[in-house]
Amino acid sequence: MRIAMFVYEFPPKIVGGLGTYAAEISQQFIRMGHDVAVFTMNDGTSLTRETWRGVEIHRPMLVEISDILPALVHEDLRKWGRGIAFFSNIFVYNILTASKLVNDLVKKEEVKFDIVSAHDWLSVIAGASVKRELHVPLVFHVHSTEKGRAMDGGSEVVNSIEFYGGQISDRVVTVSFAMRDELRGLGFPEQKVRVCYNGVDPNKYDPSKVKPEDVKALRKKYSLRESDNMVLFVGRLVSVKGVDRLVMAMPEVLRKLRNTKLVILGLGNMEQQLMSLVNSLGLQNSVILRFEFVPEEERILHYAACNAAVFPSLYEPFGIVCTEAMSMSKPIVVGARGTSGLREQVVPSGPEQCGLHVNPNDSSDIAWGIISLLADPVAAARFGENARSRVLKYFSLEAMAKSTLDVYGELLKK
Known about the structure:
Layout: E1 2-6, H1 17-31, E2 35-39, E3 49-52, E4 55-58, H2 75-78, H3 83-106, E5 115-119, H4 121-134, E6 138-142, H5 146-150, H6 156-168, E7 171-174, H7 177-185, E8 193-195, H8 212-221, E9 229-234, H9 243-256, E10 260-265, H10 271-280, E11 287-290, H11 296-305, E12 308-311, H12 320-327, E13 332-335, H13 342-345, E14 355-358, H14 363-374, H15 377-394, H16 397-412
Parallel strand pairs: 1-2, 1-5, 2-4, 5-6, 6-7, 7-8, 9-10, 9-12, 10-11, 12-13, 13-14
Antiparallel strand pairs: 3-4
Helix pairs in contact: 1-16, 3-4, 4-6, 8-11, 9-10, 9-14, 12-15
């Protein structure tokens, strides 16, 4: 089939997990014999049309409308302040990419598309426009929701766009059963929603391919002895990730296991708060803060070097960093309250146990999870082996692409 994919971020522009997902699944579609055209943002420095690893990329140049937009839109958007420029770019991106597909590719070049996929509110206006113009089935991929991300309702405009996408689309694909339940609660038509887990490349995230001397050098960089424990957090440093509560759990961890260090990798608006928290708790020698986007190869090395990975998210539709750590045979502690795709990845008991579930709102419970894993290295190693086995069975890139194509195929059979 020929697939048109509208997605806000795509290489070389990677902001978060969505860009990585889009790059991986589009390549999988190509390997499986399908054609993919991606319509994405242009930051002003990228080619407007090119082919990247077999994927056709379209990036129309944007025009500036942020000075006039506030006069035309809902009061909610006027409160965005400097964020109105972001919304303006998103709005223009949707209009220009939809026009590019309809007027240039279809009407002029006579390209025929079988499926249109739009990812999150950032792209669904374009997807809906194409559906109306060409009567092509629209699949709305919901990776997270505004209410969930904001924890307090968020933008009324963004909420409305998401709801509209759920109503006009022919199918809604989301990343976990927890997200399916959330969408149902928000009024999305239940009969449209399908769950397709995200995935990673277990051949890339493979502990056997990491050199022991590289692991040793990284641990030495953090002043870790062979007998010391390294606890790892990777992710955006925002409130929903629960990283502040993870830091607050460390004094309790250190009372039981003094030879433990927490390494935090990421960027976000909590950086100053985390530095203050580390200082106020006297954790300068036990918590290492690296405020930077770590390249994939270095991230893989960090997974290999740690004894356990901890992701105490308060809201996590899926959580690809958890899947990466699991593929690297690491035992995991995850937040398992509210909307949590992490809960579906990590088995907390029984013969397939690969980690522990904790209450992300309770730093003592997070500490309990960390201590429980680190205090029993034999069990932790077994959990790590089970974690990789689950990735191979349920969370590979091939499984992700196949389940998604199955949903697309439902629509083409009609």
